[in-house]
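Lab manual, section 2.4: Encoding a predicted structure.

Procedure: take the sequence of the chain (230 residues), apply the prediction step described in section 2.3, and record the output as structure tokens. A sample record is shown.
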Amino acid sequence: MNKVVANADAAIHDIQDNATLMLGGFGLCGIPENLIAALVRKRVKNLTCISNNAGVDDFGLGLLLQTRQVKKMMSSYVGENATFEKQLLSGELEVDLIPQGTLATRIQMAGMGIPAFFTPAGYGTEVAEGKELRVFDGKHYLMELALHADFALVKAWKGDTMGNLVFRKTTRNFSTSMAKAGNITVVEVEELVEPGMLDPDEIHVPGIYVHRIFQGAAYEKRIERKTVKM
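Recorded output:
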């Protein structure tokens, strides 16, 4: 099945206000740059965004925060974005801070069809408030629910027209799990190839999870902080 669409705008044509989105990547590494830009152009609002972090002020998810299209952020790390901080402190933005391992596992469980799991992370803190608590072998755990989304927006290094995906290095963090956890998965790739051109042993996400795919362009591939050795 050919799942190719023309561009990012076509790929998100049915994302509406109040949608819940997962956005892949780790920091600014491997984020769906073209899809985020398309969301800004589409001006959808009241979005709930699930992502490891909130981008920086002028890049990544920071662009959606600047235009105030995000109603709620569900993240594990948000320390690089002053716009995020201002909106949080002013009460404009609802925030659910989730331990990073818990966030990753909640997404993985959604992709695996497992509704909940128990973890010791967060026990005895505000994270545990309102959640079921259990004791296993004398150790305290809290129950966390699988995390689903209306759309998963991810970027891969390579993909074929059937949706099979190959990621590079750190870009696999979150993206491979998110691709399996969205009701609709939309993927942008740096290189789009024909079926049979990818080594089956190198495929990280099989095409059965992917609904739409397109070749992106003009990637900036920024980093959050550059450190050089003196």
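Check your result against the sample. The chain has one domain: 8-112+147-215.
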